[in-house]
Amino acid sequence: MRQFTTIEKLDTGILYLLELASSLSVLLLAFGLIASMANVLTKGSVLTDNLTMQRVWAWTQCIAIDASVAGTIIRTFRYQAEGEKVKTWLYGLLSALLLFTAAIVLNIESVQQTLNLTLDNAYVHVFVPVEVLIWIRSVAIVLLIVAHALRHVSSQKPTEEVQAPAPQPAPIVLSPELVETLRVLLAQTTVSEEQPNIPQITETATGTDPAREEIEEQITHPTPLFPDVPDEERNKVIEAYKSGIPRREICSYLRWGNAKYSTIVKPVLDAYEQQCQIDWENDTPNFRVAAPGCKS
Fold first, then answer.
1. d(CA 161, CA 266)
2. Is the overall model pTM greater than 0.70, yes or no?
3. Pick from 146, 167, 175: nearest CA to 72
């Protein structure tokens, strides 16, 4: 559906006028209540004996009541959407009363104008007595004043009251039973420390001579043959030497360059022969140890 800017502005202006009339109606209704009370107290001197005041009172009450019909309907649905139950029921009842009264009065005037009857004869064609209609209109006037007063009253509680204070944690009371339980638990707690596994040297009960102990110590902790030389190359040199290859021919036998003779072959064989000599010097009649590769 196409929207027209001019119509939207016109609707906004009409809504503003309805809200303005609804707000001003309270002043007009208050004026009517004051004039009615003054007329009763003065025995009719304010309205009954004054034609001008009667017309002013009639116009102000009609404007205040009938101009508030649209405003009460709007507020009924608005408060329903906001969840204001009390205001919703109040404005709903007020809207029903105002609409019922307006319909009856409009019906009386239509009958009078259509049938060309007097006002007294037009009342006969209405199923509601005039006294009941006057009561309904009087109750609607009072409810309009109450409804306007409730517009400025918020049903929501202040934030300070809605937010309940956070509950404080209960203090811990150390009873004798609790202390005894903690003491038992602490007594049952054991702390274990893992000891590192240190290899132990098995000692024999049999007596041994110092030479044998020295030889066993040498066997347990052998001296490495030139740790700077890789094990693979060292083993190749020793195997070739044990096979009867002369020193100077080991490089060509192993297909190495001659430069490795002074850096690998000679140092390895010198250390090897020295180790063999030490092992044979520490030999005993009952226990003989030879270095790997040494000839007996």
1. 100
2. no
3. 146
